[in-house]
C-alpha cells in the first residue's frame, strides 16, 4: 500500500464508483462503496448481489462501476466471487496472470443475513481469499421495505407494520458480525461511513490479509428509515455514539474496539430522527424503548469484556 489515508491524497485518486447512478438521494450505501473502492491500491474485481446497490448502479448498458463487476443473484454473490477467485489462482499458477488482484463481494442485509447466508458461510468455510462487504440498511429496501433479520427491534416495516396489533418488529436484529467472527476467519469488522478513515483503514487491512474477510457497514436508507435525505452521515455517527452500531474488529480471534464514545448517548438519540420508530415514543410502547436500550447496553458490555476494555 502506497497512498496514505489523507483527504489530500485520496482526492487525487480516481473514483471507481461514479456519480450518475440511480441510488436515492442521500443513500448511505454509495457513500460506503466509494470509500471502500478508494481505499484499495490494488485492482478490484467485484460481485454484487441483487438489491438496491445492484439495480440502481447498472441499468442496461449504463454502469457506475469502473472496475470489473458481476451482477449475481440475490443469494449467491459470495459463491460467484469465490469462483472468480479460484479461477484467478489457477491462472496465476499457470503463469497467465502476474498481477495482484483483490476480490470483493457486496450485498445488502437481505442478501447477506438472510437469502445469501448459506453462500456466504460456505465461501468463508472454504477459505477463499476474498472480502465480503455487507451494506446494512436494516430491511429489504429495494422490494418495498420488508423486514429482514437485520431489522432492529420495534422498527415499522411493510411486513412488521406498527399498529393496533403489533408495535413494529418484535424481534431483535441478528448479530451478523459476531456470527461471521464465529467462523474463525482471519478478519471481521464493523464500520460506518461517518468514520471514513476507520472504514478505509479496515478495508486496507482486510485486503492485505490472505483468506476470507467480512466487513459489516451501516448504510442509512432515508426511504426505509423515514429520515431526512441529508441525514446518512449524522445517523451513521449517532449509531456509533449510542453503541447501537459499535465500531470494532476481530483479527485472528482477538477483539479490538476502534471507537469508544467519550459520552455514550442514549439509543433514543439514534431512533428519534427516524420515522420508522416514531410509534415507540407513544406511552404504550415505552417498554420497547427500554428493552432496546437494555439490549444495546448488554451487547456493548459484552463487547468491552471480549476486547478486555472494561
Would you give an account of this structure?
The chain is α/β, with parallel strands linked by helices and 310 residues long. It has one domain: 3-Layer(aba) Sandwich (Rossmann fold), CATH 3.40.50.970. It has twelve helices and ten strands. The strands form two sheets. It has an eight-stranded mixed β-sheet with strand order 4-1-5-6-8-7-9-10, sandwiched between helices. Helix 2 (28-39) crosses helix 8 and helix 4 packs parallel to helix 6 (117-125). The radius of gyration is 19 Å and the shape is globular. The mean pLDDT is 96.
For the structure shown, list the relevant keywords.
310 residues; alpha/beta; Rossmann fold; 8-stranded mixed beta sheet
Secondary structure layout plus pairing:
Layout lengths: L6 H4 L17 H12 L4 E5 L3 H6 E2 L2 E2 L5 E3 L5 H17 L8 E7 H6 L2 H9 L5 E6 L39 H6 L5 E5 L4 H13 L4 E6 L3 H4 L6 H10 L6 E4 L2 E4 L10 H4 L14 H21 L4
Parallel strand pairs: 1-4, 1-5, 5-6, 6-8, 7-8
Antiparallel strand pairs: 2-3, 7-9, 9-10
Helix pairs in contact: 2-8, 4-6
